Amino acid sequence: MTMKVEDIGRAVRETQYAVRGPIVARAQALERAGRAIIYCNIGNPQALGQRPLTWVRQVLALCEYPELLDRLPPESFPADAVEVSRQVLAGSRHGLGAYTDSRGYAFVREAVAEFIRRRDGIAADPEAIYLTDGASKAAQSVLRLLIDDARDGIMVPIPQYPLYSATITLYGGALVPYALDERSGWELSRETLERAYAGARERGVRPRAIVVINPGNPTGAVLHETNIGMVLGFAAKHGLTVLADEVYQENLYVPGDRFVSFAQVLEDRGLQDVSLFSFHSVSKGFLGECGHRGGYVELRNVPEDVRAELTKLQSVSLCANSVGQIVTYLMVRPPKPGDPSFPVYDRERREILDGLRHKARVLAAGLNAVPGIRCNPITGAMYAFPSIALPPGVTDEEYCMDLLEETGICLVPGTGFGQAAETWHFRTTILPPPVQIETVVSKIGAFHEAYVARRAAEPLGPAPTPRPRPRRPTDE
Fold first, then answer.
1. Which of 8, 82, 263, 354 is deepest in the core (most CB within 10 A)?
2. Using an 8 Å Cβ cutoff, are 444 and 363 in contact?
3. Cα 310 from Cα 26, distance rounded (Å)
């Protein structure tokens, strides 16, 4: 007898991941049938036209095919790209096709530590840094350490990136949602955190950790130092571990805003009783190297015996992919002023970030001009999470599916991220090229007005039966 879906573990069957859910599957089917689709569902920059950085691809080319170093004329590659490639090959010892240390190449971890020292002005230990297949793998590994059974709760912002709700479900833990305030630009408050914590304890759940995404996904909001200090103080009071998702730290769009890391505030305030895991990735920022799956997690105030368990967990998968580790190295060790590669690197970096800044303004302004859509300013990350007014009986899932069918624009319904009761949203990226962003805004606006009028005129039938969504992250 062949395998049945009932044979699959319950946790797997109950896991939901909206970013690549049924709407995306339908978009792919339409595309195979010849429809033009604009994918705004996922932060995948190079799939939407962002060019790879010349610096990254030159060094990778030389490292993947070292014979080029001795065969090409000297002027074929900038001298610093050649020198860094030789350093990478020396540091890897066996080339990029061999397994690495389970924690990752030592020379890359040292470069990450130096990056953190420069960024934050604090000490950083290479032995407390693990290289991973993207930040997602790092977050999953830390959650695996923390969750033992259904009583173990992880506090997660709502709305949130579905990686967290999906992984918590997969590992059999309890999601403890805390609401971000949409009316105040998606801020979080101590009162909200305390209420969520107390509610979990009343339900028999023991909160173990709190996840914070800064800048926010899907909200596009940026936390400032006072907010970060508040979260750390809350964690210290309740003995919570902090998971700081900081993969969008380069994506800041408001003049005067600056990224402040949880590590910096933790050290500045001398909070030695809070364990912190901080994540970064090559997929976001201005690199957009999603497919290379590179990232890291830095540990602070984590005892040696706990580190040993994380090392064991990493060893089960042997190591992160070596090419992703090298892209991480190139992210944290870019060309410096005066290096031959710096002018091109600096120009490409500024063009990408300036373009994202421009598209963030265009998208927010365009959506806010549509009656029935309200979008907070996009101050960071790569997304907007606007609220949409829908007629009674219509869900954001229906809305996004119908939008796809009529316009070819693929969005993710807010249901997949969590949202306040009686509200509807969708998430869209700001990644399409500028002309395409204007097309997206125009098509969404025309669709929204016509769709709402059409659905409002329909006679109300029996309330639709919602699809079962176990453990959906919603507000209390």
1. 263
2. no
3. 38
pTM: 0.88
Judgement on whether residues 273 and 128 belong to the same structural domain of the protein:
yes
Contact 234, 240 (CB under 8 A): yes
CATH number at residue 26: 3.90.1150.10
pLDDT in tens, 141-199: 999 999 999 999 999 999 988 889 889 998 999 999 999 999 888 988 999 999 999 99
Q: What are 77's two structure tokens?
A: 């590659």
Question: What is the distance between the alpha carbons of residues 237 and 134, in angstroms, rounded to a whole number?
Answer: 31
Residues 306-317, mean pLDDT to the nearest whole number = 90
Q: Quick one: angle between helices 304-316 and 134-146, nearest 10?
A: 120
CB 128 within 8 A of CB 343: no
Bridge partners (DSSP) listed for residue 153: 174, 207
- Least confident range of 9-18, 426-435, 452-461: 9-18
Helix boundaries (H) for 50-105 = 54-64, 68-71, 79-92
Is 118 among the domain residues?
A: yes
45 shares its domain with 58: no
- Burial of 97 by CB count in 10 Å (0-12 exposed, 13-18 middle, 19+ buried)? exposed
pLDDT-based confidence at residue 70 (cuts at 50, 70, 90): confident
> What's the one-letter identity of residue 95?
G
Same domain, yes or no: 60 and 34: no
